[in-house]
Amino acid sequence: GLLNATEVDFWRSTIDRAVLMRGRSKFAAQTDMEDTTNEDFDYFDRVFTQRVNLWMDSDHMRQMLVDELGSVIGSLARELSRTRRGYRLWHDQALYKEPYANPTSWHVDVPYWSFNSTEATSAWIALDDANETNGISAHGLRRAPAQSTLSPD
């Protein structure tokens, strides 16, 4: 796998500490809890507990993302994109699916990004196993059909 069991435990505890430090704010230095740009805020606020850019207020997250991410995910991203250039971390995002949360609909994240690039790489790393017993349901996490492709054509 991408991370061994020790690394997964380290990442999980580092992220959990950073989320606890952040408190209820989705973003660093956020004062207003409601996303006034989203008319469906109440629904989507109950899909995931979400914290963005934890590196901004957690030294441990910053170290993990620069040191750990640079060697693990950065290397993989460069290999997949066949580039020798470096990469830019757009943001980190911790997502927690709480019990009885609203369903997560099938979606693609790219249209919601604040930039447009065919060279962007997104990495989603599950730090807990998800199965039928602990929460996957008909509305839960599902894999895209094998023939699914995302291209500008």
Automatic annotation (TrEMBL):
The protein's matches in InterPro entries, at most eight in alphabetical order, are given as: Phytyl_CoA_dOase-like
Which protein, by its recorded name, is this? Bifunctional lysine-specific demethylase and histidyl-hydroxylase
Q: What is the species listed in this Swiss-Prot or TrEMBL entry? A: Haptolina ericina
